[in-house]
Amino acid sequence: MTGTPRTLAEELRTRTDRGLVGLLRARPDLLNPVPGDVTQLATRAGTRASVVRAVERLDRFVLQTAEALAVAPDPCPYDTLGALMAGDAGDPAVAAELPRAVAELRAQALVWGPDERLRLVRTARELLTPSAAHPSPTGLGPTVAEAMAGMSPGLLQEIIAAAGLPTTHDPVTAVASLTALFSDRARMAALLDTAPAESVAVLDKLLWGPPYGGVTDRPAPHLQWLLDRGLLIPAGARNVVLPREAALHLRGGRAHHTPEPVPPALSPATERDPQLVDNAAANQAFTALATVEELLKEWDLGGPAVLRAGGMSVRDLKRTATALDTTEQLAAFWLELAYAAGLIASDGEADERFAATPAAEEWLQLPDHERWAALAAGWLAATRAPGIVGTADAKGRALAALGPHLDRSPAPEVRRRALGLLATLPPGTAVPATAVLARLQWERPLRGGAPAAGQAPAAADGATAAPGADPADDLRSRLAHWTLTEAELLGVTGRGALSTHGRTLIDTASDSAAPTPAETTAAATRAAALLAPLLPEPVDHVLLQADLTAVAPGPLRRPLAEALGVLADIESKGGATVYRFTPGSVRRALDAGRSAAELQEFLATHSRTPVPQPLAYLIDDVARKHGQLRIGAAAAYVRCDDDALLSEILADRRAAALRLRRLAPTVLAAQTSPDQLLDGLRAMGYAPAAESAAGDVLIARADSYRTPPRTAPAPVPDGPPSPDPTLLAAAVRAIRAGDLAATAERKPVHAPAPSPGALPRTTSAETLATMQAAVLTNSALWIGYVNADGAASQRVIAPVRVEGGFVTAYDHTSDEVRTYPLHRITGVAELADDSV
User: In what residue span(s) does the WYL domain sit (predicted)?
Assistant: First the structure.
């Protein structure tokens, strides 16, 4: 195609396949479904939903360039755009970056046309052009022509006369004359030299926006001076507006107050020893594993109930936070982390409650670095945002941990971008969170919400522009802030700097912000391999002390930790964990089926110090009493060979609530359940044991409660997925082939020519004859085809064989060999010799 393109579709046709691939990669929503030809692609690229999504992904300077084009003449020469961005004084940084910004807008099909005739697509112009309802971030108002539309011809003539311009015969030339005055730097400066100081002060207040102001029914003389000369134009009953051309003159030609061609620097930077950073991150990674493991242990016999609306109650969240010795907000993070990794879920029973999943059992058996990899991969890809737990939803209801409505689809992209910024720094370098947030806001200024728009009109006599919303308050900034905190908790960063294994975690083969789950898992596995040597080595011994405590000098091997957790209670955590032995903890071990001799041997084997005498006495004393009383179901009964002990229990006032009575010298009956009877007697200081219907002692092993098999929650995608290279290449081939079918020159046929866009129509005999001739001449045909579902399409095919009512042909549209029933072909036409 030669000459200047007249439409976006014509320009897209001139692009190379690589250019179309770049467009489809940048705007994947254009692929669903694959456009039939270039015209459909251009039409879809101009729809409002697609343009909004594309504009939201522009960085601040590219967005400022698009905003400048929206207030520039259409079409806009490149030099005019440069003047709007850099102003009359010029700006080397703007001049250096403007070609990149224009190229980015072209690549995303938001701008088309040659440099001397740049055009912003119509939908983008409608979105970014200033209006009374939607002020532009530039702060500019309407043009003189737009503001004076509908103004009476007499008033127009009075305004141009007051401005020192000759009167005209029609409103069009009057508006053009005033526009030329405001756009002429010398004449405009001369006019403003005659303005009262108060008038200039009013213009200064409206200069950078909002351009609208309020006036009274009887404006002050300095306001009337501006109204008389069109420097303020009525915009309603009591509102006025500063016209765009006048504002640009006062601004020195700049469309934006502060162009931002260069992203904010990541500073101030603090350099630390990379090895210290890695060690700090590894220690925190181990703490994260211990915290999640403790959560699973806390829920080993079943977790809290699921609310009717989903999620955990506030009371259960507080209880979990107390068990984990942390705050409620951090407890919500650990819960959501385990949920994202598929370690906890709801059991789906009638009385629904949360519990560990079967996957948690497998996770607990993995080496520490592999367990960390599972947590890190789940966190990085999760769309759930624990930081919003406790905040109110749209209906004012508090959002619950593990509940619905916690998904925020931008979360994975924000996490990767925040960590990616840290990865651009030298190893061991940390920067303040505010610097990271400022850079992210420059990269995606609109992703957190709408542009800064909609401010109320200011009073022209003295009000200033209404302040916009706090940029740090948008969703994207909050997600980034939570990312930096969560990365430190998980051990991805250490002391504010990205660790070596953290760099590997975000290093995937895909350049997309949303790599595939397989790529994320592979990167997490590589990162875990780097983390493994830094994790503390588990120990296989404890140090018993005379005060009935045991000190674990490091993380214990799993079997030892599990056995000791039954025999003793954890008193304190940290670098060394302290366990305390109590009568209750020893009885718990005996209830689990261990004998006193086995407990003594266990301690002697795993302690580097001798078993203290007080601890040995405690075990023997509790074991001597353990099981002397037997509890069974009658409703419940107590039996004991020592009738004196039963008499002692009956005489105890604390046993009144159990409603005991003697059935025999060695048997008491109770009007309560066996479990309640066990708890009641233990509260009185006895050590009863439960027995079965056969009279055998029941071993109270802590059998783990698990949910049925559950999968980790699927992330909620932020728009269509990024297409892979194979799909992009196939889509471009299909678009090219469809465009060929729609635009190729046809040889004339005897039948009436079809209307543009209509399927060709020929008789069955003509179709068959044309097909057979094409096979012999190896030529391409244009056909109309209706599939089994009744969907009609146009195709370009090269017939290979015609037999049995079918034609086998190479389909240029789908780039494959296909077979078509002849009765479904509505018509056929030969292509001109140079069409394929």
Answer: 766-828
